[in-house]
Amino acid sequence: ETGVTQTPRHLVMGMTNKKSLKCEQHLGHNAMYWYKQSAKKPLELMFVYNFKEQTENNSVPSRFSPECPNSSHLFLHLHTLQPEDSALYLCASSQGSPGEQYFGPGTRLTVT
Amino acid sequence: GENVEQHPSTLSVQEGDSAVIKCTYSDSASNYFPWYKQELGKGPQLIIDIRSNVGEKKDQRIAVTLNKTAKHFSLHITETQPEDSAVYFCAAGDRDDKIIFGKGTRLHILP
After folding, report:
1. Three-state DSSP class for A84?
2. Contacts of A40 (CB under 8 A, 6+ apart)
3. Between the CA of residue B89 and those of A38, B35, B81, B107, what are the distances in Å?
4. Partners of A15 in beta bridges
5. CB pairs below 8 Å between A and B: how many?
6. What is the pLDDT of residues A49-102, one digit of tens each?
7. CA of B7 to nearest chain A CA: how many angstroms apart?
8. CB contact (8 A) between residue A45 and residue B99
9. DSSP character at residue A42
């Protein structure tokens, strides 16, 4: 266990659905991240939050909407997704800049 | 922005032999170079990292070397074991707390 939990672990949703991914870190870190991992592609950084403030938005489409209510929780709200959005979505946290990132197990998302 | 290239994409090594994975980066401002191991069904986990003021770092069977002039760094695993089979990612980080990952190397340890 890395101290970073993600729910759900698997999610299948239609293109018209709205769902949310949840991440929680129990490490007292001040930064949290969302990554997208697709087959044969590098890990793609989507969003970075430092002390609950969004410091990075890597040109992510607006159908992905992050929320960081406090430094321990991070959400990714999903709506009207496309089949190409199917991937493993990983959450990570870190302390320090730059520093070791601790990853959760990921949510395997399938968009039908 | 930073660009990280990683080779090879797949590597098969006989158990007990050494494995070497190489990465290059483009941004001379990068000063943090971690290596992650990802096993099936899990998120990546840090196995070793190096900062730009150090040329080499070793932790038991794992070592990393860094050449800042040439902008490349490598992971060396000696005396490989079956549990070393996984996907390995290199990454380069700058002062803005953003780490760019390579595409990964799938390492197979052959019995």
Report:
1. helix
2. B103
3. 14, 6, 18, 11
4. none
5. 60
6. 887 777 777 789 999 999 999 989 999 999 999 999 999 999 999 986 667 899
7. 13
8. yes
9. -
**Å between A102 CA and nearest CA of chain B:** 7
Task: Compute φ and ψ for A38, nearest 5 degrees.
Answer: -110, 160
Measured CA distances, A48 to A6, A32, A76, A96, B106 (Å)? 16, 6, 12, 13, 27
Nearest to A107 by CA among A37, A48, A54: A37
Instruction: Assess B27–A contact: CB distance below 8 Å, yes or no.
Output: no
Nearest-by-Cβ selection for B43 from A45, A48, A106: A106
Which amino acid type is present at position B64?
V
**For B45-94, what is each residue's pLDDT tens digit?**
999 999 888 899 999 999 999 999 999 999 999 999 999 999 999 999 87
Q: Which chain A residues contact residue B34 at CB under 8 A?
A: 100-101
Cα angle for residues A60, B49, B9 (degrees, 5° grid): 65
Q: Residue A59 is encoded by which pair of tokens?
A: 């040109």
